[in-house]
Amino acid sequence: MKVQTVLIAAAAVLLTAFAYRQYSWAGVAVAVGAMVMWLLLHLTRTMQVLRKAANQPMGFVASAVMLNARLQPGVTLLHVVGMTKSLGQQLSPPDQQPEVFRWTDEGQSHVSCTFVGGKLSTWELVRPEPEAQP
Question: I need a labelling partner for 74 at 20 to 30 A (CA). Which of 12, 25, 29, 114 fits?
Fold first, then answer.
């Protein structure tokens, strides 16, 4: 189990206990309402990103070079999908770590991103060789 998951659950329990101790059941209602609102905000953001990605070809990005410049280690797959407005073409076997996704632009340049535990660890930009002029 991830440490972040345990910390979030512990914070929720502590917030609820603190709210009960200070304000009785009214405090619990406010604390639970705030946590539900936080979850709904994250769900709404996820749905907006996926709705935009559904309208684009899979694995397509407007500019692979610009995507390469904007990537940072540690961002989530959802963040990268939001930047590209497209689901990546999965190159790794499903449900196996690390996950590798590729986004390609019209000039056949592509960025291959490796995600470990849902976070971007490495990426590589590949640009095609220019054709020889006769």
Answer: 12
Query: What pLDDT is recorded for position 40?
Result: 97
Cα–Cα distance for residue pair 57/34, rounded to 1 Å = 37
Q: What is the pLDDT of residues 65-84, one digit of tens each?
A: 999 999 999 999 999 999 99
Neighbour order of strands in the sheet with 89-90: 89-90, 99-104, 110-116, 119-126
Q: Give the pLDDT confidence score for residue 84 in this predicted structure.
A: 93
pTM of the predicted model as reported, rounded to 2 decimal places: 0.80
The whole-angstrom separation of Cα 44 and Cα 3 is: 25
Pick the closest to residue 118 from 65, 58, 88, 78 (CA basis). 78
Q: Domains of the chain by range and CATH?
A: 1-55 (no CATH), 57-126 (3.30.1450.10)
